[in-house]
Every structure is written in C-alpha cells, then in structure tokens.
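Thread amino acids onto this structure.
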C-alpha cells in the first residue's frame, strides 16, 4: 500500500480523458458510472460538466486501467473505428467466454478492468 497522499493533480486530466474514451466507446451514462465505480449521480454530472473533481484512489485506478485498455486497442487495431468497436464485440478468448470485453468490465469490479488490460497487454506481446 502506498503511503503517498493522493494530491489530486491527475484528477482533472484523468476525468477529461475518461469522458473522451466514453464518447469513443459510445458508453451510456449507466455504463460510465459503473466503470467509474458508481459515483453518486450528482457527482458524476458535476465531473462531466466541469471536467474536474476530486477522485478517490479507486476511481483513479479504474480510469488508469480503462485508459490503458483504450491505448492498447489503438496500438493493436490501428483503425480507430475497429479499435473502439472491439469492446462491444463478443469475444471467445478465455477471459470473456463469448461475451464482450465491455460486459466483463461492467461487472463493476476493478479486478475485471485489470483482467481486460492484462489480456490486451499480452496480445501486444
């Protein structure tokens, strides 16, 4: 466990990057909130409106995994539309069992974001 206090310097940039990713993936509000760890609706809309906010470590960790997944996809699938569509496509690879990566990520668990990130990192070699 890190002893460093979370100073918030990355919160704004992380949120703004997340909302760009949400747009690229065509995520509904409910999906966005689930991926962020279910912040209260008022908090979520404030973040979205202001592109700023105070994030807990859990939320920051989630955004970090999601941005890693997005970046891996951009590298693995140079076609942006295909990269962005990948998260919704049914996938027979072991971590997904015929469901989409987004289904797996929408379990609400940070661990599932980690699993998807690890899978894509492995694909990159």
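Threaded sequence (125 positions):
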């Amino acid at each position: 466990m890190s002893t460093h206090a979370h100073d918030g310097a990355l919160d704004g940039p992380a949120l703004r990057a997340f909302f760009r990713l949400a747009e690229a993936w065509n995520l509904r509000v409910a999906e966005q909130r689930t991926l962020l760890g279910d912040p209260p609706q008022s908090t979520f809309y404030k973040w979205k409106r202001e592109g700023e906010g105070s994030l807990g470590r859990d939320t920051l960790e989630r955004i970090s995994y999601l941005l890693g997944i997005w970046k891996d996809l951009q590298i693995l699938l140079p076609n942006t539309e295909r990269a962005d569509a990948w998260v919704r496509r049914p996938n027979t690879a072991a971590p997904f069992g015929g469901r989409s990566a987004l289904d797996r990520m929408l379990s609400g668990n940070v661990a599932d974001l980690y699993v998807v990130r690890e899978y894509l990192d492995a694909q990159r070699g």
